[in-house]
Write a structure and sequence with these properties.
128 residues; alpha/beta; five-stranded parallel beta sheet; 5 helices; binds manganese (II) ion
Length: 128
């Protein structure tokens, strides 16, 4: 099993924070700054898990999740997707799950929660 995480996020501060946090645990991180780039990056690379911001500048995270689940690259139908919602509103979480995300986390991103959530799907390469 690989250890590559694709993070689809338009906020550079979150991108830097999460990238550093995951790289410190031995994951490789691919970056995409908007939804369409995210879908394309998932199609063109071997990715093991996707972290998906919901509020994106082009198509939103719900639409990204739907396009991944319906993608002709069949792996993307099953890849773990963790949605990152801007607030804890119940509607956002339910929309993320019904769009095909496996679980969701609320912003602000808590690094320990992030590690635990990611490790539940793909073991950290740094922990032997
Ligand atoms: Mn955003």
């Amino acid at each position: 099993m690989g250890n590559t995480v694709l993070y689809i996020e338009d906020n550079p501060d979150n991108m830097t924070l999460v990238k550093r946090a995951l790289e410190s645990r031995g994951y490789a991180v691919l970056e995409a700054g908007d939804g369409l780039t995210g879908v394309e990056t998932a199609e063109q690379n071997d990715v093991d898990l996707i972290l998906l911001d919901i509020n994106l500048p082009d198509i939103d995270g719900y639409e990204v999740a739907r396009r991944l689940r319906a993608n002709r690259k069949i792996d993307l139908a099953y890849i773990p997707i963790i949605a990152i919602t801007a607030n804890a509103l119940k509607g956002d979480a339910e929309k993320a799950l019904s769009a095909g995300c496996d679980i969701y986390m609320s912003k602000p991103i808590n690094i320990r929660e992030l590690w635990a959530r990611v490790e539940a799907f793909i073991p950290s390469p740094a922990v032997k």
